Amino acid sequence: MHRPSLLRITVGAAISLIAFGLSGTLLRAESNSAKSALHQFLSPTEGSALCYSQAYDAEQLKGQTEPKMTELSFHVVYGKHPDSKDQSDEYRTYWFRLAARPAGATDTLRVAGECNERTSRIWCGVECDGGGFIVHPNSDSKSVRLVFDRLLRTVGSCEAEELSNLDLGTPGRIFELRMADAALCK
Domain coordinates of the chain in residue numbers? Predict the structure, then answer.
């Protein structure tokens, strides 16, 4: 029976520790770079906020085959989520509200949720598994492109049985919104 030498065990352990240390370093680096897109978009400072909006007139809507939206607004904030049960001082997040008015509708549909990083992109997910969208800030930060799932589902609460669907057309539909006064998003 062959017994491993102390030298082989020591070298093997050292290689394992180095590999584990490097993978931990790579994971931390990946985690830090994943946060950078969101942090660059909006500083992780309590109360920092951005508002983007776009209204579409009849001329802009003419000829569209997708479901038509006359107004969209997107509000993203860093801080305590207003609907969170965890109001401790340690809990902070990027949260959003999105309002959309389909053409011909009298009501504005509203959804809310949290934004985070997914594969180095900013993803905003609607609460209660209501769909979501990717946020692409333009380099000038004066506008964003929102890339949507086909449907966003809106509910009064996560326990609600009645759902409202906001049909945005084909998956991957893009809306470009311009930076707006914060009062518009409140």
Answer: 49-185
**pTM value > 0.85:** no
Contact 182, 48 (CB under 8 A): no
DSSP sequence for 125-185: EETTT--EEEEEE-TTSSEEEEEE-SEEEE-SSTT-S--EEEE-SSTTEEEEEEE--HHHH
What is residue 34's DSSP assignment?
A: H
**In this predicted model, what pLDDT tens digit does every residue of 7-38 receive, in sequence order?**
343 334 333 333 333 333 333 333 444 457 88
CB-based contact 76:105 (threshold 8 Å): no
CA distance 29 to 151: 34
Give which of 126, 118, 123 is closest to 163, Cα–Cα. 126
Count the neighbouring beta carbons within 10 Å of the beta carbon of residue 178. Answer: 13
User: Each residue of 108-126: pLDDT tens digit?
Assistant: 888 888 999 888 899 998 8
| Cα-based angle 106, 98, 140 (whole degrees, multiple of 5) | 125
Lookup result for tokens 């311009």: 178
- How far apart CA 97 and CA 129 sit, in angstroms, is 15
**Cα–Cα distance, 135 to 121 (Å, whole number):** 7
